[in-house]
Structures are given as structure tokens and as C-alpha cells.
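# nightly structure sweep
# worker-07 picked up a monomer target from the shared queue
# config: single-sequence mode, recycle default, output format = C-alpha cells
# input follows
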Amino acid sequence: MLQYTLARDSLLVGFGSARDSDVSPLENQPQSKTGPRPSIFFAPTRDAHGLLTRKNFSHVLLVRKVLTDGDARAVLLPLPTGEWVADEQLEALVPSDHYMDVATCISRESSLAAGADIAHSAFEFESIEFETPVVLRIESYVSQNRLREQFSLENVPEEFAAFAVHWHQPEIRCSPLLQTTYASMATGSLVSYHAGLFFGVAASQASAALVPSYASCVQMQAGHSSIGEFACALSKTLNTLKQIGSGAPSAVRNQILRQWATYQTEPIATGTSQGLMVWPVDAKAPFELTYTFASTLETAVRPSGKSFSAGRAEVSKSDAEWLATVHKNRGVPELPEYVRGLYDRSLLTLKQMQDPTGGIIAAPEFQFEFTACGGYGYCWGRDAGFISLAMDTAGMFDESEKFYAYMAKCQAENGSFLHRHDMNGHVGPSWGLLQPDETGSVLFGLWEHVRISGRTEVALKLRGMVERAAQWLATCRFEDTEWICDGFDLWEEREGVHLYSVAAAVAGLRAAADLSEKLGWTVPKMWRDRAQVLSKLIEENLVAARNPSGTSFARTLFLKNTTAQPALQYTNTDPVSQASRSSNSVAASAEQRPLEAAGVKPQRWACDYVMDISLLGVVEPFRAISEDYAEHVLPELCRTARNTLWRIGVGGIGRYEGDHYRDGQPWILTTLWLALAAARCGENELATECCEWVLNHTPREGQLPEQIDPVTGEPSWVMPLTWSHAMFVLACSQLPSDIWNNAMSSESAFAKFNNPTE
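# output follows
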């Protein structure tokens, strides 16, 4: 999976891999864990359609200046690569006569600078050819649509010359077809382009462009690759060095090393293409690799014009000024120093995940085959409802305003907001097209933006969007009941009428009414009336002491197509009838009415009382029931969630009982969701436990995953997940400072390791 991301302007870069142990195409030893290397590039949009390449690597190659029998003639320092780089490329590169030794990476680490999108990583390599391990340090940042990486080598033996090696296969706009890869020997750049988008890679040292030693671009065919051509050139170079012997003048040997044979002056290939370029570097001084996104060929091969240090200073200053503006808007929560650092990192991550169009992706796309996931590089109205709320709570008013302007492009003709959208506002690939909670979430979030920020500019332009969405929520119902229409739940697994969806509809209708009153618009009486009806239905019909662990809402009233979902198992599923309603239900009263009185046919409806963390959404954040009612049920509901969903061993909160997705791993956002709800009802000890768990499972870089591996306790699946960061920002902003102070006082070794004050 991705370990962390850097982004600015139109370029987003993911560092890491999508699998837990990786094999580099230039080494024959598996790596124990993924490493912080740029593995996937997106531009000009951050969604799945903005893919530039995920098949790329950059490595350092050391070649002996004088070759003698018995010595390895070259040593590769194999930096970790992405999952999508085929392992067979190793065989193509390393000659059969074993000229090359592959060093072993014995340590690696990475970090993100405090308060700025600047990454640091370090690798230590061991080889029989080295008396002392060789160290490679890399500093990275994104500026002006360029990823700039400065490499510094330490302990390279004098007898070795150093080279930077880069290879990539373009997939611009998610396709390997009709791509062109071109080696501009005059500028020392390897460029791929398609449909007006250009991705270029170049090397420089001491602010001067480096002249390539070798370049190859090929149209991929059976047994034909740029890496294979490079292996042949490397073998010829090494043989030539040996033939001239140690007595040859050093100038001659250096010339052979610096300018390897190329097959053509300006290599170029089209179709399913790939390219490789090698630059000689001085191992005693820093050198730079620059990855550029551009809309013209000239820009793609043009040097940045600024020194690496000057660009880094600009990034640091820009991020510091942006954070200062955000903090001025809403103030800074009272937090321990370490948590404050993670809070700022979350704000920067929220900013990274927002596309220039205003859309906010759920996470950087990481698995384009979609064999194990449905794709995260899109905008969900559900996630974004929490994300924009976090933005406004923290003071990111400009970003939230830009998001709602984008959402106006996503609205369906009937007023609803469907499954998910790309950054241009088009409906994305879907498996659960209608999810009613998303429409309610968008209206809820827009009103929160106006309420918190005091800004009305964007809302004044979106009157039509608000009115259509509210009218759809007010009228989307079954003909014979008062419940909203059926759709998929927030986990996108079950079709029916779900409590979370009803709660979101209540919040959305109330938000539309409040916003309209604020702006002096006409408020249809139907909106508030419908919200009140749905709120009372929640209170009267959807609570029962049915879960063995304690009180639980019924998360689903009507499960549609149950025969088509045999893999979904529920621990407590019963038909709804007056006889089956628990006499000790916390909602039980003489005023309650059976569902039959509301026109519901019992045989059509099946309630399940499976504990699901989303049940908390009724109160946090939607407040879909009365304060008195919430005060009555929330404490017990929080305790039930803790007793039922806390994962044995690793800890943390899962999504729901019997969760089958990735074996029901605990999630960061669900654990923080419980912390927020628990603190709301005074269960501070429970909130502290949840926050402590999150801090203990936050990676060193500070970007949060979706899930945690139940065996290793390490990040799992997708990272960073924008929703996780949104919940962290909300928790930092809303929880009492004592909760965070107590969470930080934990004896956890992980927290102590990450705490810079200790």
C-alpha cells in the first residue's frame, strides 16, 4: 500500500507499494516491507482517470572503474518499487554471467517534516564489496507540478563510479495504448506523452542538467524491453573496461563509463512503450531527480529554474503560511505537542486530497485492476460530508467552499447525489448507484459550512442544488409507508432501508430548511414536516434491546433481495411485528405503534439488530433524534459498540458484527467515531481508550490508513484515507484536552517512539 503522499497544484505522488512484501525488478531478494519511494503519479486530476504511471523505478548503480577477476563489476542499490513493476524485469537487467551484485537493504526509514509536505527517507545497503554499508538519503517535495528528489550518498568506495537509473512505462489516462516515450538526449530527459499530457524525468547536479550515459525507448514486444537493451549495453561496457585493463589512463576509463553506446541519437517509441535513462553522478555531492507533469513537451524537458534548496524553502514557507491562515480562522485546539503535529499533518493531507476542481478523493487510487477493491480515487458525498465538516471545523473555509461548488456539477437530474464521481463531476463506475445518505450528507455539510464559517457566498450560488436535493429527500419514499426509499447502506453491501440513511435524510432536510431561512429563501413546509416524521419513526420503531451485548438500534428495517445476498450473515435478524418488539426496549411506551399501523406489511420487512458503528450517526454527527432521546440511549449504545466491536488482540473498533470485508479488521475512522460519540455523552474513559489506540497505530509519517492489520498491528489496505484524517481533525477539535493528555500518558512503546519530546 502507499506509505505516504506528496501533492501540490495538479500533481499527486504516492510513495510505497500496494502489497506488504515486495520484490524489486532490479534485485533477486524480497523486501521485508514496503519502502518510501515514488511509485504512482497522478495529474492533472487526482482521481483514477489522472493516472500517469504506476510502473516505474529509480535506482543507484555503482560500477567499478577498474575491473579485475573475482570482483563484482557492478553493485546495484535496489530501492523499493511499486507492486506493478514486473519481477521478470530483474532477469532482463542482471546479466547471466553475474556481473552485478545486488546489495541488501538492511535498514530504511521515512518521515514527513513537521508542518510541511517535505519527505525525508534513508536507506542503508550492505554488500560483500563494501567494507562499510553505503547510506542513501533522499529529500522530496512537490512544487510547480514537479516532484523533486535530492539524493545524497555516503561511504561509496573510491573505486566505484555512480549512476542514477530510471525506468518507467506510461499509462497516461489509465491506458497503456497509444503512448509515446521519447529520450531527449539534448536536455537529458525521458518523456512520455499522450492526449496532451506529458510526464518527464531528468537528472541534475550542482544546478546543471546531467548528460545521459545511456537511453533506450522501445515498443514492448515479446522478449523486447528497454531494460534488456540496457543490460546488453552494461555488459559491453564492463567487458570493454576489463579488456583495456588497469593500466589504461583514467581519462579513457572515465570516458567509457560516462558515455555508453546508444542505439539511436534520440530514442523514441510509440504504442505500449517504455523507456530507460542512465545518468552519471558524482557520489561525493548531492544530485537530483525531477519528475515533471506538463501540458507541453517544452515544459516537460525544461529545468525548474530554481535550486533544490530554494524550492524547498518555498514549499516550507507556503505550507507554514497556509496553516497559519487556517489556525487564524478557527484557532488551534489545545493539544499535546505530538498530537498537535498529527493534527497539522491531517490538515495538510486533507488539502492534498482535494483536486484543483474542488472534488475530494476518498484516497489515492492504488489498485487499478480492481481485483481486491472497488477503487478509491473518486469523490463520495458520504465521505465528503465528514471531510468538509472537518475542514470547516478546522478553519479550511476556502477548501470547503470550493468543494461545494464542485458538488453542484455532480447532482443528478432528480436532485439526488449518486454513488461517486470523478473530479470532473461525472458519475463514476458504480455497484450501488443509489445511496440515499449521500444526498443528506451533502446538504448537512453545506449548512455546517455556512453555520461555522459565516460565509454565504457559495451557498447563494447553489440555491437550485439545495432545493432540488431537499425536494428529492422529502419525496423519496415507498408508496405504502412513511419510510424513505430503499438503497445501499453506507458500507455499500446491503440494499434496503437503513437507519443511517434515514438519519442522514433527517439532517439533510433540516439543513436545507435552516440554510434557506438564513438566506431568506422560501422554505417549503414539507421539508421540516418530513424531517420530523422520519425522526419520530426512528424513535418509535427502530430501537430495541435485541443485541445480546446491550441496547442497539435496528440498523436495517427492510433488507431487499435477501436471497441474492447469501454471504451476508446477521447475528440477530427477526421479522418486525408487535409481538417481536422487546418489552424492555428503551423506546417502549404506550404511545408506540406497531409498524402495521403505519401501513407496513410485516412479511416485507426484516429488521436486523447487528451492532454497526454507523448507528452512532443518528446522534454523531446528524442529531436526527431529540436531545432528550439521544441523552437516554447514547451512553448504552456506546458501551454496546465497545463490547461488541472491539477487536480481540489488536484492539480498535470494527465496522459491524461479523464483518467479512478483509476479515473485519479494525478501522481508524470507526474508532474515532466511537470516541466522538462517547465524549458527547460523558463516557470520557472510553473516548480516551479509543484515542490512545489511534495514536498507538499512527505511522511515523503521520498519515492515517483505513484499517489496521489484526496480527501485526501495522497499517493495512489503503493509506492515506481522507475520511480517517477527517475524523482525526474532528476528534482533535471537539474532544476535551484531558482526553488527549490522558491518551498520551499511555505506556505504549509506539507512542513513546513517535513522540519527539521523549
